[in-house]
Prior knowledge:
The protein is α/β, with parallel strands linked by helices.
Amino acid sequence: MNLTEELIGxxxxxxxxxxxxxxxxxxxxxxxxxxxxxxxxxxxxxxxDLFAPEYGSFAIxxxxxxxEEALAEAVAALGFEDDCVPCIxxxxxETAADYAFTWAGETICMRKLQEAWEAKLEPVFPxxxxxxxxxxxxxxxxxxLLGAEGKVARPRVVIxxxxxxxxxxxxxxxxxxxxxxxxxxxxxxxxxxxxxESTQKLCESIGRSQIVFIPGGFSGGDxxxxxxxxxxxxxxxxxxxxxxxxxxxxxxxxxxxxxxxFQALVKLGLVPFGDIRPMDADCPTLxxxxxGRHQSRLVRxxxxxxxxxxxxxxxxxxxxTVAISHGEGRFVASDAVLAxxxxxxxxxxxxxxxxxxxxxxxxxxxxxxxxxxxxxxxxDGRVLGKMxxxxxxxxxxxxxxxxxxxxxxxxxxxxxxVD
Length: 419
């Protein structure tokens, strides 16, 4: 453990896995599955029992620039006796571009291993099938909002935290990192009096803020039968509704909702309509994932439109790898609403494959959203709702993951008031 910590601290580790019941066979296989990487065992490791439980051991992939001298220095820094080092460090082998597992002269296709591992739950949670063809239309950007009329040095952001939200800390850090002042406001619903007090405090906070951000999580435990109902009911209180309208319609403000916050914005009507309004049968919504269960993974998204100030620091057609974690992320809307959003440039981002093509394939579009929609805006772009957790980014996250891992939407929102 000390050696593993030392190697990581010196930046010599590309990936690591704590070996357990499945032994090195499980560890090396799972380390390769995510990015489709194969493995070729070394002669030195040929006698290792691949399937023996190895609790307390680590399988470590050394960084590409790790030299034998650097490795020796890390071992020496811990003061190991020379005769102990071979017991501590064993050359297991090398990663391979070919998606195959080779050990002691035998080779097994990793795709077959992956199929055997994943297919067990196929009867319960089907994950195959490309689904119907997804339109990939050219999206009109419309008039771009260049900046707020009232400039401020440090825009104020209020983050109301409802019972069950869990992303407020990451969200606050994301805004603070780019120069905003953040107020995290806990919404207390223990008593009617507490609800009234929280309502008043939120209205006051919105009144002195430039941005309202509704964070992700599972407000109210997503029960009964659907997410964001408590958030929606809270924002439909007349005084909160008027505070939001004042922010968006008279004070040039912005709103952002991610995941649970996106669900709230849709069910309020703030996206795609730009105002809190009654819901009817023609309104879009976010509902249960097609796969029938929660999805937690990294996905690729493409920015279609920079109409919104939130995407002003992004280039159209740029691909970003972001985290998702939701059970109700499937965006559904009528053909008429989709056509209107397309014409106005409101379909801000989509789930796409490595080539940037939107798809209904579950491996690309994890919830089955129509047109592979990941994020949409209000008609003027001031309000953005999206499923991907752009706030979940920071030093040390998503090691050994390809693609652009940071999406600068928070910079875009703050820049709107500063520049």
